[in-house]
Amino acid sequence: MSSHRRVWYPYVSPFDPCPPIKAKAYSTPPSLFLGYQPPNLEQFTPMEALKIGTLWKVFYDPWYSPYEVSTEEDQS
């Protein structure tokens, strides 16, 4: 499974008065890579779905700050 984390390298001006942020990370939604919703997808229970925000497990994306380690990276 591919990572939903992407990195963007913005232009750094030599005249910028602030220290530059050379790499910016962002998260892409899992639905971007699915194309269409196939039938019979695995679902969360109704209570879990209310807490998480989606009914289907393939659409769930836990967002992690770039400064913390996700459990997905720990298992690799």
Automatic annotation (TrEMBL):
- The name this protein carries in UniProt is CotJA
Q: Which Pfam families match?
A: CotJA (PF11007)
InterPro entries, per database record: Spore_coat_CotJA (IPR020256)
Q: Which domain of life is it from?
A: Bacteria
**Organism source for this protein?**
Mesobacillus subterraneus
